[in-house]
Design brief:
Elements: H1 2-13, H2 38-44, E1 53-57, H3 64-75, E2 78-82, H4 87-97, E3 104-108, H5 112-122, E4 143-147, H6 164-181, E5 185-189, H7 202-206, E6 209-214, E7 221-229, E8 237-243, E9 246-249, H8 254-257, E10 268-275, E11 278-290, E12 298-301, H9 305-319, E13 326-332, H10 345-357, E14 365-367, E15 370-371, E16 377-378, H11 383-392, E17 397-399, H12 407-415
Helix pairs in contact: 5-6, 9-10, 10-12
Protein name: DNA repair protein RadA
Binding site for ATP: 58-65
Biased composition (Basic and acidic residues): 1-11
């Protein structure tokens, strides 16, 4: 009886899949299509893969729709599906960005089944009667934009658009469409107050790539990070500058973070941080002001304030600077934020010491190194790569653990 049930279950399932040896699977080179946006290609790993599904998220107004409309203009034969804006609003943005491509199709739709049907019809070749002399253009879509996934819904499920079930099911159907038609799909995702993608966690799992837009909307700097990428690295960062005509790729981002004036100023120290695999030169600016308050101020912009307080304690204890009588301020020029990168420790300490002594570092100097609680200077990841980039840009005085081993020794050598 039990064996009959097992045979019945096996019959319903059909023929089971058989495992194959990993070495017997033929190797295939991944074909990519360039987006013609250099920084976007860098983050994607070289370009778009056929059937790739990309989720792009970020705060409202950061530039998600802008870069996707620019992408549609570069590649052509793009279907832009809008569930938030009307076609006239998209037209206004396109005119502002100077986009006049006739190959961009705009669809104002929130029903995911209607979108799938429209795409299948656009990619389907229709036969013409022999006596029909008109030339019919067949559209082979090079990509689809879904703006946004939280506005999509299907009538097969109950619940409003944006609910967990609707977002999950709509995403599944769009992924199936991308794989079956070999069309890259970009989904725009909303973010929550906590800074995560709105909707179910499975949304980030089922897509191939998750891109995250960062930046202060009051500044022109925009950073595009790959949080997940099945077809490329997740340690690359794209740098953009927001201008009147959209997002512009920045091949030399140092100009955004360094002052054009080459004259050295007390409190200003250059360092090299790592954004993905790319070293970026940034300027650390510090200000030390005497105070009569019982509790001096410790204000940091672009740096973790707890890390800043720790470094001030090292300066007081290991280098003998009486900073308990001064308000201390530190800022990263250009609006960039240093996250979990201790390579700027030495530059922050020397910047504060430079402001305290009112003396400048030698011209053309750059400081790279982690500072320990004992006041020792430690080597950081990809230090050789950072110093090579600094030398390429004309900086010759390297302040690292190879020149000085302790923070007090560095202050004595370069500031006294």
């Amino acid at each position: 009886m039990a064996s009959d049930k097992r045979q019945e279950v096996k019959g319903k399932r059909g023929t089971a899949s058989k495992p194959v040896s990993l070495t017997s699977i033929p190797s295939k080179a991944t074909s990519r299509t360039s987006t013609k946006i250099s920084e976007l290609d860098r983050v994607l790993g070289g370009g778009l893969v056929p059937g790739q599904v990309v989720l792009i998220a970020g705060e409202p107004g950061i530039g998600k729709s802008t870069i996707l409309l620019q992408l549609a203009d570069k590649l052509g034969d793009f279907l832009y599906v809008s569930g938030e804006e009307s076609v006239s609003q998209i037209k206004i943005r396109a005119e502002r960005l100077g986009i006049k491509s006739k190959s961009i199709q705009v669809l104002e739709e929130t029903d995911v089944d209607g979108i799938v049907e429209a795409v299948e019809q656009m990619n389907q070749r229709t036969s013409k009667p022999k006596n029909d002399s008109t030339v019919q253009r067949v559209i082979n879509l090079s990509g689809i934009v879904i703006d946004s996934i939280q506005t999509m819904a299907t009538s097969d499920l109950s619940g409003m658009a944006g609910s967990v079930g609707q977002v999950r099911e709509c995403a599944f159907r769009l992924v199936r469409l991308a794989k079956s038609q070999n069309i890259p799909i970009f989904m725009v995702g909303h973010v929550t107050k906590q800074g995560s993608v709105a909707g179910p966690a499975v949304l980030m799992h089922i897509v191939d790539t998750v891109l995250w837009f960062e930046g202060d909307k009051s500044l022109t700097l925009r950073l595009l990070r790959a949080v997940k990428n099945r077809f490329g690295p997740t340690d690359e960062v794209g740098v953009f500058e927001m201008e009147d005509k959209g997002l512009i790729s920045v091949s030399d981002p140092e100009k955004l973070f360094l002052t054009l004036d080459k004259k050295t100023t007390p409190g200003s120290v250059l360092t090299s941080i790592l954004q993905g695999t790319r070293p970026l030169l940034v300027e650390i600016q510090s200000l030390v002001v005497p105070t009569k308050m019982a509790f001096p101020k410790r204000i940091a912009q672009g740096v973790d304030v707890r890390r800043f307080e720790l470094l001030l304690a090292v300066l007081q204890r290991r280098s003998g600077l009486p900073l308990y009588e001064f308000d201390c301020f530190v800022n990263i020029a250009g609006g960039i934020t240093i996250k979990n990168d201790p390579s700027a420790d030495l530059a922050i300490c020397l910047s504060v010491a430079s402001a305290y002594f009112d003396k400048t570092l030698p011209k053309g100097s750059i400081a790279i190194g982690e500072v320990g609680l004992l006041g020792d200077i430690r080597e950081v990841i990809a230090q050789e790569k950072r110093t090579k980039e600094a030398k390429r840009l004309g900086y010759r005085v390297m302040i690292t653990n190879r020149e000085v081993r302790y923070l007090q020794e560095a202050i004595r050598k370069y500031l006294k």
